[in-house]
Design brief:
This protein is of the alpha/beta class. Helix content is 34%, strand content 15%. Pfam families: Epimerase.
C-alpha cells in the first residue's frame, strides 16, 4: 500500500516508517521539520514537509494514499502551554482524518495514548479503578494532552459512521528505545516503588512499530482501540506485591497473565491484531537498571 506516516522524524514515526517500508509498503514520511535536500538512497522512503494544523497541507500529503498512520503530536502536556498542546494535537488529527475521509483513504491508524483515562497528568490526582488497565477502563481526562487524544479517538468514531474508512487507535505505553532505556526505566528496575502513573508499564518502539504495521494491514471493520505495552513490567517485579505495598487496596487487582505483569493489559491486541511483542527491558539493561555493554 501507499502509506503516509505523520510525525516521521519523531521516535515513533521514524520506527513506523522503517517497519512499514521493510514490510513492502510504499511509504512517505511527513513532518513539520525540514527535509534533507540530497539524493535519496535506493529504496529510501519519500518525505514531505508539512504543517498539519493547516488543512491544506493535510489534504496535500494525504492525496493518493491508501493508508495513513498519524503519529504527529506534541508528546506530553508539560513542556508547552496548554492551548498549544491541545490545538496542535487535536487539529492535526482532525485535518488528517478529514482529508482521509474526503480523499477515499481506506485505512487510518491513529496513535493515541495510554494517558486517555486521565490519571497520568491530572490537576486533581486520582488512581485507576483497577489494574491491569484495559480498554474498558472509564475515561476521565483533565489535561490538554489526554483530552486531545480522547477527542482524537472520537474523531475516528465519527469517521467510520460517515464513510467506509477503517480506523484503529493505538494507545502506546511509555515508549522506549535503545538510547533512553537506562535514563527512563533504570529507576523503576532498581526500585519497584517507582510505579509511576503507568504502573511499571512500557513499550519498546520496535514492538510498537510492529503493532503499527499490523494495524495498517488489518481488515478489522469500524474503529477499534488497543493498548500497546510490553507483557512484563519494568524491572520484572512481582506486580501484585508492588501494588499492595504502594496502594494497599485502593486499586482493584484483577487476574494477572504472569507474576511480573505490566500495569496495562494488551490481551485485546494479542487477540484481534495478532500482536506479540519480542523485546524486553532485559535486552538493554541489567538487573541494576544499567545499560548492558554487550
Amino acid at each position: 500500500m501507499r502509506v503516509v506516516v505523520t510525525g516521521a522524524h519523531g521516535k515513533v514515526g521514524r520506527a513506523a516508517v522503517n517497519a512499514l517500508a521493510a514490510a513492502g509498503h510504499e511509504v512517505t514520511g511527513v513532518d513539520v521539520t525540514r527535509p534533507v535536500f540530497e539524493r535519496r538512497e535506493p529504496g529510501e522512503p519519500g518525505y514531505k514537509q508539512a504543517d498539519l494544523t493547516d488543512a491544506g497541507h493535510a489534504f496535500a500529503v494525504v492525496h493518493g494514499a491508501d493508508a495513513v498512520v498519524h503519529a504527529a503530536a506534541i508528546p506530553e502536556p508539560t513542556s508547552n502551554p496548554p492551548q498549544v498542546v491541545f490545538q496542535n494535537n487535536l487539529m492535526t488529527t482532525f485535518n488528517m482524518i478529514e482529508a482521509a475521509v474526503r480523499l477515499g483513504v481506506s485505512r487510518f491508524v491513529n496513535i493515541s495514548s495510554e494517558t486517555v483515562p486521565g490519571f497520568f497528568f491530572p490537576e486533581r490526582p486520582f488512581l485507576p479503578d483497577y489494574a491491569p488497565v484495559d480498554e474498558e477502563h472509564p475515561i476521565r481526562p483533565q489535561d490538554p494532552y489526554a483530552l486531545a487524544k480522547h477527542f482524537g479517538e472520537q474523531l475516528m468514531d465519527a469517521a467510520v459512521r460517515r464513510s467506509d474508512i477503517r480506523c484503529i487507535s493505538l494507545r502506546p505505553s511509555w515508549v522506549q528505545w535503545e538510547g533512553n532505556y537506562e535514563r527512563n526505566l533504570g529507576p523503576q528496575v532498581r526500585d519497584a516503588t517507582e510505579l509511576g502513573a503507568g504502573l511499571l508499564s512500557y513499550i519498546d518502539v520496535y514492538d510498537l512499530a510492529d503493532a503499527i504495521v499490523l494495524a495498517t494491514e488489518s481488515a478489522l471493520p469500524g474503529h477499534e482501540v488497543f493498548y500497546i505495552a510490553s507483557p512484563d513490567n519494568a524491572g520484572g517485579h512481582d506486580f501484585a506485591e508492588a501494588m499492595r505495598r504502594r496502594y494497599g487496596d485502593q486499586i482493584e487487582l484483577r487476574p494477572l497473565s504472569r507474576p511480573d505483569a505490566s500495569g496495562i493489559s494488551c490481551a485485546k491486541a494479542h487477540r484481534l491484531l495478532g500482536w506479540n511483542p519480542k523485546r524486553s527491558w532485559r535486552d538493554y539493561l541489567d538487573d541494576d537498571g544499567r545499560a548492558r555493554t554487550s
